[in-house]
Hints:
It is a single chain. Helices cover 29% and strands 23% of the residues. The protein has 429 residues and is α/β, with parallel strands linked by helices. Helix 4 packs parallel to helix 5. The mean pLDDT is 96.
Amino acid sequence: MNIQEIINSRLDGTTKGLPFDAVVSPATVAEKKWNVLRQDLHFPLLVLKEAPLDYNIKAMARWCADNGFLLAPHGKTTMCPQIYQRQLEAGAFGITVANVSQLLVCVRFGVKRILVANQIVGTANVRSLVGVMNADAGLECYCLVDSVEGTRLLARLMQECGAQRPLKVLLEWGRKGWRTGARTLSQAIDIYEEILKHPDQLTFGGIEGYEALAHDPAGEEAEVRQTREFLSAVARLTTEISGRRHGDLAGLILSIGGTSYLDLVWEALTKLDGQYKPVLRSGCYVTHDHGFYAERMAAMQSRNVAKDPVPVFRQALELWSYIQSIPDENRAILTFGRRDCPYDVGLPLPLCAVALEDGLDGARSLESARITAVNDQHAFMSFPGGVSLRVGDKICCGISHPCTAFDKWRAIPLVDENYDVIDLYLTYF
C-alpha cells in the first residue's frame, strides 16, 4: 500500500474535533503534544486507543494463521486505509468492502486483493470496476452472485463496459428470511452453471456465506442452532460443487463472515476437507466494542466450542463528551448525539466521569448510569442517587457497533495509554 498522501493530508479546525488554530497532518500531529484529557481537542471526540488496536490486529492474524484460515478484514467497518495497511502487514489475504465506491478507496491506496461482499449491479458500478481492473493487471477482485438473472446481468455489463479479463465471482448461499443468497441447492447449482457460460467475463472463484444474520425470539440457543444449520448447508454446497467441478479446485475460496459466531465458524471450517481455502471477513474485531460485540464475545467464551479458543478482543474506541446541563434530578445532558455515535445496535455505555481539570486518576465509575436517548447533538444520561456529577465533567462512553461509529468521523485521534495524541487516522466514507 501507499498511504503517503494520507499521512501528509493537512487538516484544520473545520475537521470535527480539531481546535481553531490547528493546521496538522497525521505526520505532524504528535509534534503538537496534544492530550485528550487535558482538553486540547474539542469534545465530543471519538478516540482510538493504540494498545488495544495493535493487540486485536495481531491476535486475530495469529489465530487465523494457527488455524489455517485466511483473513480479508471487512474494510467497511473503518474505511481507514491506515488500518488496512496494518492489517495487511499482519498477514491479511486482502480487504473486504461492501460496494464499488469502497473498492475504489482500496484501489486508490494500493490494496491489491479486494472482496466485494455484495452483488454488483448498475452500469456505473460495473464501468468503474472494469476500469480499475483494466488499468491494473495485478488487481484481484471478487464479488458475489446469488441468482441466474444477476449473473447474466453482471456478465452482460462486464462485456458492454469492455472488460479485458474476467471477474472472480463467489456463489452466495443464503437462508429464507435472511438477506441475499441462493435459498436452495438447485438454485445454487443453476447459478454455478450460469457462471461457467460466461468465461470471458466471469470466473468461478468459490462460495460465500454470511452467518451473522441468525435471529430467533427464542434466544441464543436457537440462534446457535440456526447458525450451525446455515454453516452445514454451506459445507454441503461446497461438496456438491466439487463433484461438478471441471478441473481442480486450486485457488477456490470459501468465505464466511466470522465475527458474531467466530467459534461456530471455527467448528464448521475445521470439518471441511480442505478443498477450498477458508477466508474470514471479520471486521469489528479490530476495535471490538462495549455493547453488541462484547455480548457476542461473552457468549463465545461461555460456549467454549473451539479447541483453539477465539481471542478475547479489547475495546479500542471511546467517546468523550461533557456534561452540559443537569436540568432534572438524576439526569444529565451530554454534548454528543447521533452525529457522533452509533445508535443502531445499542446506545453508548457510560464508563466513567472525570472532573473538568482532572486526569484519569480521578475517574469515577458510571457503571450504573445509562444513556437513555440521543438527539442529533444531545445525549440523555440517567444516573442513580449517590453519584455526584457536575456541569463540565468529562464523560467517557464505550460504543456499540463500530461499523456505525467510524462513519461519523473524518479524523480520529490515535492515543497512547496516557491519552497523548500520537497520530490521526482518516476515514473515507
